[in-house]
């Protein structure tokens, strides 16, 4: 599957299904070579950002916001060809969504408060001196800003 096709498909699916597809795609592109814990942490950051509303109102908006996550950083022609990693990314994304749907006090958070992450082997963001929440595999997770759920 090509990334462009997946993003097109997400644009025509019902919002909840589209968000699951966008989150799965992001987990795959950002962390398919990381541990399950690392993949869950990537999903958690995307969900926390969605709740804040600062990058958009849906997971698809968040992960396709300019220069924020892999879906906008890699070529649209990128193929998601590792079927085992794709199946794992889908499972992790769905599990992360179920966990995040719980009341805040009942969620299992892996990187509490993390609003950003970076793989330092390929990126050196300006905010890399922010508070480090955790390092999991090749990714360091940061609390660059306090994200609070937007008011309903």
UniProtKB/TrEMBL annotation:
Gene Ontology molecular functions: hydrolase activity
Pfam family for this entry, one: Hydrolase_2
Transmembrane segments: none
InterPro entries per UniProt: Cell_wall_hydrolase_SleB (IPR011105), SleB_dom1 (IPR042047)
Keywords: Hydrolase
Taxonomic superkingdom: Bacteria
Keyword Nucleus attributed: no
Domain Cell wall hydrolase SleB: from-to ranges: 34-142
The protein's name in its UniProt record: Cell wall hydrolase
